[in-house]
Hints:
Elements: E1 5-9, H1 16-19, H2 27-36, E2 44-49, E3 52-60, E4 69-75, H3 84-99
Amino acid sequence: MTSDLVFRPITGLEEIELFNALPGPYNDGLAEDLQNGHCRADWMWVALRDGRPVARVGWWSRGGIRPEVLETLDIDDAHGDPHRTDIGARLLRTALTALFPADTLPPPTSGAGASPSPSTACAPRPPTHCRPPR
Length: 134
């Protein structure tokens, strides 16, 4: 069931451990990214069930003015929740709506202005972790 979830951004550096409760390749550098402005707390969202993260999404930026790269999208699959894909999709939609109001556009998914093709947009893919060089 997904109705018992809370979707929200973290409050700041004091909640980095909450965001990092899910494993990820950038966990060790996220606190530093928050401090130096490459990430902002309002760009780092969690889906909580009973206070425990079950999904997270976060953006990164070179300049810290606007999110440029969807850096983190993780869903807890340890408990085999049959709704986990829905939870991740709802979290992503909620965060996108908050970060990019209707009159603005999110950054392209890959390449300049690129959009995924309809045949591959929802196809399962192995996790990839790419961060632009700093």
